[in-house]
Amino acid sequence: MTINNAIIYLISINIISLVCMAFDKRQATKRGQRVSEYFFTLLSMLGGFVGIIGAGLIFRHKTRKRSFQLKIIFGILIFILFAYLIIQSNLV
Question: How far apart (Å, rounded) are the C-alpha atoms in residues 59 and 43?
């Protein structure tokens, strides 16, 4: 994977994360079916935490829910660990 591909991937996963948070906020106000926190944690582990945090601030969604914040922090730590391991193995 080249650095350009990595940048494209990170931009894409963060856009997906932002859209999912916007959708979840809309569903919350309409009392519709919600996106699971497990899915947001997974997106965070895959590198989408910037989109999740940004959308939380933009849409004022899940900003006070401490358990959700801890799950996203956990996802960030897992992402950093895997990124470190990939960089150390010279896969990028």
Answer: 18
At residue 92, does pLDDT exceed 90?
no
- Separation CA 92–CA 6 (nearest Å): 8
Which tens digit of pLDDT belongs to each residue from 31-49?
Answer: 999 999 999 999 999 999 9
Residue 10 CB-half CA count within 13 A: 13
User: How many whole angstroms separate alpha carbon 23 and alpha carbon 36?
Assistant: 12
pTM exceeds 0.85: yes
Q: What is the DSSP letter of 92?
A: -
Give CA–CA dist 1/24, Å, rounded.
32
Comparing CA positions, the residue from 44, 26, 12 lying closest to residue 53 is 44
